[in-house]
Amino acid sequence: MKVPPLAATLALLALLGAPAHAARPRAVGSSGLLDPARAEKDAPNVLRENNAFCKEPSRPLSFRARALCTVADRIPNCEGFTAACAAEHHAAMPEKPPEDESHFLEALKKILGQVATVVIWILIAAVMLALLFPLLRVVIRSRKDKALADQVEAPKPTTAVGTRPQADLLSEDDAEVLLRRAEGHAQQGNFEAALFTYLNASLRALDKRGAIRIARHRTNGEYVRACSETETKEPLYAIVRDVDRVQFGGAHPTPDVVARTASRATAIVRTAAVVASTLMLALLIGGCSLPHHGGRASDPAGHEILGDLLQRQGVTVRPLGSSLASVPLPDQAQAVPQTYAILVDTDRTPLETTTELHLMHWVRAGGFLVLAGTPLRWPDELGAEMETSTSSDIEVDSVSGDGEARTDRGRLVHPAAIRFKEALPVRVQVARTGDGKWYAGYQSLDRGQILTIASSDLLMNAQLAQPANAATMVSILRHLDRAELRLALPQDGISPPSNPITALERSGLGLALYHALAATLVLFVAVGIRLSRARPTPPQTRRAFTEHIEATGTFYHRRRAASHALAAYARYAEERVRQRLPRGTQDVGAWLGQRSGVSVEECTQIWQRATSAQTAAVPHGDELFVLKRLSAIVSLALRLD
């Protein structure tokens, strides 16, 4: 058949102008990569390979798994999950108290419970003291031994062989240090010192463990007999025997003897660490109750069945492996911007604000996002809200791989539906509830696509174990056009810290960090002020004489000493006036009146009142007036000279 040139040209332009990742949604009946009919056939085989949650589920059941206990009876041959749900329900049910139990017994139980709490705290305190007391004894004993060692005179060279081991034993507390010192002596060829140091290391280790008690008056044989560790007595006796032969028998140590002593001393010293590690491991193993895991697909709320269903139809399913906030943006220059889609279950993977912003940016750049879970936990940009639904049934219209139209019907554990605030022309309803509400929707967002699902029920193993639900879920995912689907793990919704400070804040140490910073700054300031250059102390400033006068007057006023002030000033004025009076002059008032220009009567009256004032007399109220007037008269009289 011959194609017209114009038609061929238009078809070529249309193909070149349409992007390969077309942002427009496909028709509701498009089949894509997934076929619901094939999923319905594969479901029994997939369940047979992933039925660990039916036979031996993980115990204890998680919160999401316990929510699926209501559908345990719908799953065929799933007695293990049913039994686990029954056991969890029985354990959660509170025991009914006996009806004949009296109030006295209830009160007695409460009192005994409080007493038991007090006893437990006392035991904890006693254990802490029991652990700290030996440490304190060791510290005190080591200090005493060091003090005694400092008082001992330095040994003579001729007796160094016999006295050096005891001095080293009392001056060194760490057995490991003594072992290293002995190895150094052996490498230098000083076999006697190495032999004695190995003995000291063994005794010091036994002393720290409480098997012996080191003292100056004890001999090596007494240490062996007093050793409380039965398994250590034999190697310690062998070491002591070789040392005594050299120290008292005059034998010369050989490299073989030193090597045997080294192995025995090392075993004695490092037995403590091995025993402590073994005891700690035993306590951890015995005290921790590890959850039981039945293997792959042992969690009823897992996603293993969904992964197997998709992989049988050519879609690779694997974990995301990184934080959602660090997913690289698609390359805008590529025809197909992204080779994988991301499935996020917001009920399992909570999203931070930073993660939401980056995830929506990733979608707009060309990513394909499958978002399931409660709509309240979705990004605000989607404008999704929860819708009330009374039906747990789900209906999905699709087209199978052979082109036949079909409707898949599934069932949820709890009814769920979504409602969008704004109606977009590119949004398509993918699944609906039994009462006609939206359950799943597909929409384009710039270069990318989003498939939203109102709940995460159909993602979990216990729900997909029902063949109808498996086909329904695959039918919902029929718009998936990527050959790879990556599942977000619970920790992938947390954005990685950008710096160490943020990491500390997220771990709850932010307040402690700021307190430490403030304390460091205060410490720097406190030390820096003390180490700064000394400044001379400025001399004290002299105060004006008038301030002293005002202070004295204020004191007189508070003490009501006006008579004292007048008498004191009268004596001062009389001394000054007597120095200026001519010989033979007796009338002071007349002399003051003549000299000051004030009337003689006033001067006489003021002078008599001032000179007659007594220090302890009761004030008449005119003392300050008389004092002021007398000061003026005297000043005028004396100033004329």
UniProtKB/TrEMBL annotation:
<dbReference type="InterPro" id="IPR025646">
    <property type="entry name" value="DUF4350"/>
</dbReference>
<keyword id="KW-0472">Membrane</keyword>
<dbReference type="Pfam" id="PF14258">
    <property type="entry name" value="DUF4350"/>
</dbReference>
<keyword id="KW-0812">Transmembrane</keyword>
<keyword id="KW-0732">Signal</keyword>
<feature type="transmembrane region" description="Helical">
    <location>
        <begin position="267"/>
        <end position="286"/>
    </location>
</feature>
<feature type="transmembrane region" description="Helical">
    <location>
        <begin position="512"/>
        <end position="532"/>
    </location>
</feature>
<feature type="domain" description="DUF4350">
    <location>
        <begin position="298"/>
        <end position="476"/>
    </location>
</feature>
<keyword id="KW-1133">Transmembrane helix</keyword>
<feature type="transmembrane region" description="Helical">
    <location>
        <begin position="111"/>
        <end position="136"/>
    </location>
</feature>
<protein>
    <recommendedName>
        <fullName>DUF4350 domain-containing protein</fullName>
    </recommendedName>
</protein>
<feature type="region of interest" description="Disordered">
    <location>
        <begin position="386"/>
        <end position="407"/>
    </location>
</feature>
<feature type="signal peptide">
    <location>
        <begin position="1"/>
        <end position="22"/>
    </location>
</feature>
